[in-house]
Amino acid sequence: MTAQIIDGRALARKVLEDVGKGAAQLARRPGLAVIIAGDDPASHVYVRNKVRRAEELGFLTETIQLPDDIDEGAVLDEVATLNARDEIDGILVQLPLPEHVNTLRVMAAVDPAKDVDGLHALNAGRLTQGSGGLIPCTPSGCMKLIQSIIPDLTGFHAVVIGSSNIVGKPMAALLLEAKATVTQTHIHTRDTRFIARGADILISAVGRPGLVRGDWIKPRAIVIDVGTTRVPKVEGGYRIVGDVDFEEARDVAGAITPVPGGVGPMTIACLMENTLNAALVRQGELVSA
Ligand SMILES: Nc1nc2c(c(=O)[nH]1)N[C@@H](CN(C=O)c1ccc(C(=O)N[C@@H](CCC(=O)O)C(=O)O)cc1)CN2
């Protein structure tokens, strides 16, 4: 058996098309501001791609580039300035931040109504209660990918490998809200392979290339690979690899996301969707994201 490949680029195009239509209805174009601190090359690629997509949709964009040695107070000042600007609907602080800057304090400073990353405690809390709010982009994209294969997840067993605030935890909350039975693993979990083998839907969000082997996968399961690790090539440059051993997995799984071209493009599309939703709420067109 060869797994169906879930095409993240194609699904992202559809999401972006809908976002474009929604944005065209607004009196004022959505505004997205991105803060990036430091010189991490991958972060710069992601930010450039986000800004490019936003501009293609006609959004107002602004990138605030800060040095690696910026102090936390200065980052908080930038966030406060953006919070106060009416034409900015969405604020995104690219992660990781430099080590000396406390990520949770910066997230807490973002106006929850403009928190298009869904990482403010208020939005994270609303997600666990199923009471709306802005949802982190990668898990939101994963849900769309999963539901493109199984629209109704009631009673399916989902296993989430990884427990980060940005992917693992919100992913588990979304799956629970969709009535799946959820198991979450973390760094101290014993025998992750055994747990993974029980999954109808397996999501790996760890950032360890090749962690998930073919014998970790239940036959016909849906496999969502969130890993995007840059591995240097001998001839120079790099390639992007996921957490899943794709060649082994495709012989066992029912459907699988590729890396690249799976979750990554959906992350950016869902950021655009969140920015539109934040703009709709702020312009009084929607009660809640
Ligand atoms: N504030 C945030 N920081 C980070 C997030 C996030 O959601 N919010 N997620 C990741 C990185 N990320 C977005 O910022 C991201 C990663 C990968 C892709 C993507 O499109 N990947 C492509 C390959 C791109 C390449 O060639 O490098 C793919 O998988 O097809 C988009 C966004 C950490 N930080």
UniProtKB/TrEMBL annotation:
Give the matching InterPro entries.
Aminoacid_DH-like_N_sf, NAD(P)-bd_dom_sf, THF_DH/CycHdrlase, THF_DH/CycHdrlase_cat_dom, THF_DH/CycHdrlase_CS, THF_DH/CycHdrlase_NAD-bd_dom
The EC code for this enzyme is 1.5.1.5, 3.5.4.9
Q: Which GO terms describe its biological process?
A: L-histidine biosynthetic process; methionine biosynthetic process; purine nucleotide biosynthetic process; tetrahydrofolate interconversion
Q: Name one Pfam family in it.
A: THF_DHG_CYH_C
The Gene Ontology CC terms held by the record are: cytosol
Catalytic reaction annotation = (6R)-5,10-methenyltetrahydrofolate + H2O = (6R)-10-formyltetrahydrofolate + H(+); (6R)-5,10-methylene-5,6,7,8-tetrahydrofolate + NADP(+) = (6R)-5,10-methenyltetrahydrofolate + NADPH
- Residues noted as binding NADP(+) in the record, renumbered to the chain: G162, S163, S164, I187, T228
The molecular function GO annotations come to:
methenyltetrahydrofolate cyclohydrolase activity; methylenetetrahydrofolate dehydrogenase (NADP+) activity
UniProt keyword terms in alphabetical order:
Amino-acid biosynthesis, Histidine biosynthesis, Hydrolase, Methionine biosynthesis, Multifunctional enzyme, NADP, One-carbon metabolism, Oxidoreductase, Purine biosynthesis
**Hey, which pathway is this one from?**
One-carbon metabolism; tetrahydrofolate interconversion
Tetrahydrofolate dehydrogenase/cyclohydrolase NAD(P)-binding domain ranges (all copies): 136-280
Would you say which domain of life the source belongs to?
Bacteria
The record places domain Tetrahydrofolate dehydrogenase/cyclohydrolase catalytic at: 6-117
**Family the UniProt entry places it in:** Belongs to the tetrahydrofolate dehydrogenase/cyclohydrolase family.
Q: Enumerate the PANTHER family for this protein.
A: C-1-TETRAHYDROFOLATE SYNTHASE, CYTOPLASMIC, C-1-TETRAHYDROFOLATE SYNTHASE, CYTOPLASMIC-RELATED
Q: How does it assemble?
A: Homodimer.
Instruction: State the function annotated in the UniProt record.
Output: Catalyzes the oxidation of 5,10-methylenetetrahydrofolate to 5,10-methenyltetrahydrofolate and then the hydrolysis of 5,10-methenyltetrahydrofolate to 10-formyltetrahydrofolate.
Q: What is this protein called?
A: Bifunctional protein FolD
Species annotation: Parasphingopyxis marina
Corresponding gene? folD
